[in-house]
Amino acid sequence: MSATVRIAIASIFVGALVLGIKMVAWWLTGSVALLADALESTVNVATAIAALVAIRIAAKPADTTHPYGHHKAEFFSAVLEGVMIIVAALLILREAYFGFLAPRVMDLPIEGLLVNGAATVINAIWAWVLISRGRAGRSPALVADGKHLFTDVVTSAGVALGVLLAIITGWWMLDPLMAVIVAINILWSGFRVVRESLSGLMDEAVSEDTLNKVREIISKEAGGAVEAHDLRTRHAGQAIFIDFHLVVPGDTTVFDAHEICDRVEAALRDAVEGAKITIHVEPEHKQKHTGIVVLD
């Protein structure tokens, strides 16, 4: 079992634990904001399960029906998480609406805040783990799950502030008001997660830094070739697809051309983790004089 899968499984258990703690906080206080916070956490459990399924699917090798692999499954999970975040925000707005209609005095507010604070600390730590491990392993599903959890941390902090101010001032309308403010923040976060995931589904190219690294490696390692042109890249989950045309002198043997390609591919795989490389070899008369110049 890979480290990414283990983290995804752990996320389900952490999400369930945090959800239980937040439900206790709501039960102690009757706070609309704390209830909204707990509702948001139900989404964490669902999205953690979706992330695990996506990661397991993405790890499957290529087959006859999916010759390029299953890497994009992680992007579908990330889109789902973004949508679920937005749904959670709408549920919070609904609860806040009823809170405005009938504001109420909270029961045991301090105790509820302490319990909710414990859940917030757990979420903050786990969000950091997910984002750092997800970026290290280039897993969009884990990164999206971590960002989702971080919005939950922001939610809990805003809720705690609203509840605390309501206790101090006696203006219980602050409880649903803070829930509305936090819901708007969650909506923005959900939009960003969906936007980033859709860029992967649309075969967006790698970052400019990675692209420059690829160009430098081809220029340095393709000795014996003339130039490389029509370089294209795209990312799909943990895989980065790189393809280009490599122009070689007309008298180059098939064996020598293959040696050049092997050298370039090995260097790219060492520098770009998860690289999937396709090189189309062309004779010298196909030179465009606009591509990557190969250094001697």
UniProtKB/TrEMBL annotation:
InterPro entries: Cation_efflux, Cation_efflux_CTD, Cation_efflux_CTD_sf, Cation_efflux_TM, Cation_efflux_TMD_sf, CDF_Transporter. SUPFAM superfamilies: Cation efflux protein cytoplasmic domain-like (SSF160240), Cation efflux protein transmembrane domain-like (SSF161111). It is found in: Cell membrane. The keyword Magnesium does not apply. Residues 207-284 form the Cation efflux protein cytoplasmic domain. It is a multi-pass membrane protein. The chain crosses the membrane at residues 7-28, 34-55, 75-93, 113-131, 152-171, 177-194. Keywords: Cell membrane, Membrane, Transmembrane, Transmembrane helix, Transport. Belongs to the cation diffusion facilitator (CDF) transporter (TC 2.A.4) family. This is Protein p34. It comes from Lutimaribacter saemankumensis.
